[in-house]
């Protein structure tokens, strides 16, 4: 807008405006509207091509959001109803047939003694001596198949771990492989820190960043869960009582079989050779892990 036109507009507004500030406000609004209209006309004259807007994916929100630490908005049953999981087809569970016990069945048993008649009629199945006064609830059988837990990403063959529970707690060991049950097979080695070949739950170990190159170590297929399982020995109750009330109170010491000792030496031979390639690694494995005052394990980097 030309300056002379602005001055003329100001004089016309000044005659009716109550104050100067109100007059300048009206004038600024007039000038602003004219500028906007001129810009719009310029854009229309240019005839810019209209570009289609990009199609954005619809933002989704979780059905069950957290309203606090370890607290969700919906419970397990509410989420089941919300997802309408009750509409899915249910597979019928095959009913297990329970063999019925016939307590009325009897059998003839020979009895000794001259005055006992030689035979006696006794029930095949003895009736229970005690009956429950209330209906006892039976626990539900789990339908899920038992699967071995997955291996943590920090655990790879050759990783040095710190054992947190058991007889060798606080000791360091080398992780060799994961067994079918999900347990870890570790070794100290025995020559370095006294930890033999054994199974350890991965929930009770700390995986460190220290690695041992065990590419030259070849483990045989016999190292499985059955290899580490204890032999079950059935003993007579009288033999147990005699052993318990023995005068000297000493029990027979369990001896490690020669095959286990030979396997330990074979594995340790390759492990010790791999550990010797790195200086101070043997001393690191032999040093037990401990915490002192002011040490916080959740702030440590292993």
Automatic annotation (TrEMBL):
Pfam families: Ribosomal_L6e. One of its GO terms (biological process) is ribosomal large subunit assembly. Keywords: Ribonucleoprotein, Ribosomal protein. The keyword Ribosomal protein applies. One of its GO terms (molecular function) is RNA binding. The keyword Cell membrane does not apply. GO terms for cellular component: cytosolic large ribosomal subunit. Belongs to the eukaryotic ribosomal protein eL6 family. This is 60S ribosomal protein L6. The lineage of its organism: Eukaryota, Fungi, Dikarya, Basidiomycota, Pucciniomycotina.
